[in-house]
Amino acid sequence: MAHEGKRIRAAREGVDRIKLYPLGDAVTLVKGRASAKFDETIEVAMNLGVDPRHADQMVRGVCNLPNGTGRTVRVAVFARGPKADEAKAAGADIVGAEDLLETVQGGTIDFDRCIATPDMMGLVGRLGKVLGPRGLMPNPRVGTVTMNVGQAVKDAKGGAVEFRVEKAGIVHGGVGKVSFGEDKLVENIRAFADAVAKAKPAGAKGTYIQRIAISSSMGPGVKVDPASVMGQG
Description:
Elements: H1 2-12, H2 23-32, E1 41-48, E2 60-64, E3 75-78, H3 81-89, E4 94-96, H4 98-105, E5 113-116, H5 121-124, H6 128-131, H7 149-158, E6 160-164, E7 170-177, H8 182-198, E8 209-216, E9 222-224, H9 226-229
Parallel strand pairs: 3-4, 3-5
Antiparallel strand pairs: 1-7, 1-8, 2-6, 8-9
């Protein structure tokens, strides 16, 4: 554990905890301090001026990252007949109906994204208590309840990232891997922040995007100047 503490301290060296870094500099810092033996995920955290306890201040949406997420996403689809065939052809990992319901109810959740055709939502609704807390419940607002299952599967595989504001008004998202080039990470972070900006709810008052920070899975957080992310600098 002492070694772990030393590694974290070393990673934090040279990072000003108060300074707001321009996005490019922040990405350079985070990439340079990622020292884990695996390809760490780069994450962005955005503090928003919303109280998600109010329905008109809920922030939710999906962002298609221009350079993908860098991770393999396992996709499950609830569909029957031709739509099940369409999902399989698009590369879905698991496709089913009642059989898939039983598998999930039995505690086996071997997927990262869940898509359903609208006619399956009566079935899928029974899994709310299982899928809801894991953020896996299909939802038309983020394109995971749709008749166009082929495109939804391709989007999920290609870099679609769902986001949803947490109680404290924070939105998190994985926006790539440490191995990505800096330009690709900057593009992905800007795309994610832009999607969150476009999802601004009617009830948001005052400054909507208050703080932005990026980090790697095991590295320190680096605060970013919001103006450099939102294309103003």
